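Notebook B, p. 112. Complex prediction, attempt 2.
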Amino acid sequence: MTHTADAIVIGAGIHGCSTALHLALRGVKALVIEKDYAGRHASGVNAGGVRQLARHLAEVPLSVASMEIWERIRDIVDDDCGFEAHGQVLIAESETELDGFRTRVDDLRLRGFRHEELLDRTQLRHIVPAAAEHCVGGIVSRRDGAANPFRTTQAFRRKAIALGARFLEGVSVINLRRQGRAWRLETTHGSFEAANVVNAAGAWADHITAQVGEPVPLQVIAPMLMITAPMPSFVTPVVILRGRKLSFKQFANGTVLIGGGHLGRPFRNENRTELDWHKLSESTGTVAELFPIMAGSTIVRAWAGIEARMPDDIPVIGPSHTSEGIFHQFGFSAHGFQLGPGVGALMAELITTGATNVPIEPFRIQRFSEPQHSEHSQSGRQEPMN
Amino acid sequence: MSNALKTRYDVAVIGAGPAGLAAAAVTARAGLETIVLDENPSPGGQVYRAVTTTPLHATTVPGDDYRRGLDLVGELERSGAQLVSTAMVWSVSRELEIGISRNGSAQLLSARRIVLATGALERPFPVPGWTLPGVMTVGAAQTLLKSSGLVPRGSVVLAGLGPLLWLYAAQLLDAGASINAILETTPRRNLLSAVPYAPAFLLSPYFSKGLALLSRVRRRVRILRGATRIAALGDGQIQAVRFEAGGREMRLPVDNLLLHQGVAPNVNLAMSIGVEHRWDALQLCWRPIADEFGTTSIPGIAVAGDGAGICGAWAAEQRGRLAGLRIVNELAGGRVVEAPSEQSLRQSLRRWQLGRGFLDRLYQPAAQFRVPEDDAVIVCRCEEVTAGQIRHAVRIGCEGPNQLKSFLRCGMGPCQGRLCGLTVTELMAAERRVAPQAVGYYRLRPPVKPITLAELASLPQGDAAVSAVVRQ
């Protein structure tokens, strides 16, 4: 027997859960199909950064729109998701780097975005007193912060269910094909039909795009994170670097999360990752140089999530180029957590109205098959883990 | 024995207890380049802890069995294996790369075969007040006795069950200390389920040893049988232990309450590598799925000794030799080597496993001491998570230990679940009314033991061990 749904969302990460919730808010009761459980992969184990700071220019409007949702997250999902807006700071380790930051902040202002503010040496020390002597300044985005990623994903899932969405966890999609005006999905738990299907399958999203005839150059990555035993409180905002890979956050309980995008090895068919201790060692070296107080800290755990990265480090968002009724929402390239609430809202808008308020043209899937897509590489900064 | 480490070995054995020492002696004698990594200052594991350095040899305190450790250490030394003490293993990968920390710095080395001989851990004993100063485990107290000759001062009460409890009691008495009481917690029905296994136990070498031990202790210590509802009482320090026995509530003033209800395999390292485990419904613990030679689900990784399922020191030694023998057959096959006969090892193993079924049943700890009835009891000591919080998390939809980490940070402290994991699995299973196997265990993340940031930063870059290991 085939079950029908208003819409089907494949993948119960933060993006799939957010889309299901926002569809429900618009009266569309989605069925979410998840091969493991909600938040099992990148959405549940990332650094929880809620960051507008230092985003690719194409992502800035999305990120700003998403931030507005973050700031009233409790009203939306009945849970504060552990979100705390203590700001995020991008530190410059050299004058050359700081010059680049200055240009970026000026450029953002011209485009009407004022969330990034340049910091000189004194201002940086005021916000991050523990930063090493060689740090010359930086950028702060004061409304940024961090949240608990697994709790956030679960909160979106719970609220979506309360509003009428259904979740099938532990169920894999085997294939999908057109059936009249609808899409028919064969799964490990029966067949389902819906007019619209959202591909929010993260590191497995290319399996879905291949089914609808639009392969994508998706790279499966395993960004690594480490956490320490509690330390005396010494840093409040999230701190990130660009020249070297680092993101850094101290929690209220004193533990310190160290990330930044060093990659382990993913084995996506086995749901597991292997860590690269040499790269983690490099991370710890960077930490010790940036925050000398950290040299004596104790690493209690290290792990990696499985995530999709696109060649240009920006996601795929929007309708399929080949198949009406298929919508893509994947490839967030290790910085999709903050975007989850906003992109979910946007997808619901796109599916129910056919258009979006925020521009998503840079994220179109066909960019990979077009002769050139150089217009998107102008500010192509590599983004770290959330 | 040189202490400079190479980056590649034929065989790396983790743990220098009876299984590890025996396994390494077999592989090294057969000509395989073998390293034994152990985190203690001297070899012996828990059972033969400090056997080469203890101040107790001049006395009769540790007993004859303890000296067996000296034989094993001697055998290892003669075998040519390299023993590295104070080497803490914090990671093992499926590629057979081992992360170790020693003298404040970290390094990686690789091996063609790895034997995990990580031994046993004391089962958690979560009762009200078990986190108070003055409450410790029998195993910890025995460590102090063996390595430093220390005995507890003031009034001492032991509570729980199992061979180690009686052994330590006898050692304490022999060391001249006194024990005010032993609260024996063996449930009466245990004897009924154990009786059918008694004939085999009567043939076991442990039978006469155990009997002698019991009578020595019973002559000199007040034993309170069938103790239930044990609680440690005190304000900032234990002052008394409250319990029920013989149908009435009792209270004894106490300075030291020593708890013990058996041991369970220390599977953290094996779990972190991804070795498949199953719930052992008799021993009430996770054990790696392995054959007689310790072969696991991960190619190249073997387990031996109590870490592969509780079997006792003598059987652990045989299992170590069998694991070593399998590796010798695989890596040195065809060459003429010196190796023990498989048949005699199996025979010996069987002899030392006689009566295990009896002991496992007799000393199976009661449910009330594994899963706290009182919601206020702390289960996860690192993050101070109570039984009540875990029950609540289950009620709102948390299905297993991994989600529990996200809900409550339970099991996320430096001990990585060593002190709470079994309790959490059984508590969640009871609450969900499913088998422990269905609840599962924490996904364990390396480092399996904490390392300092400075140590990790010291990892040599471009180490030869990085290159993929060619398995043979």
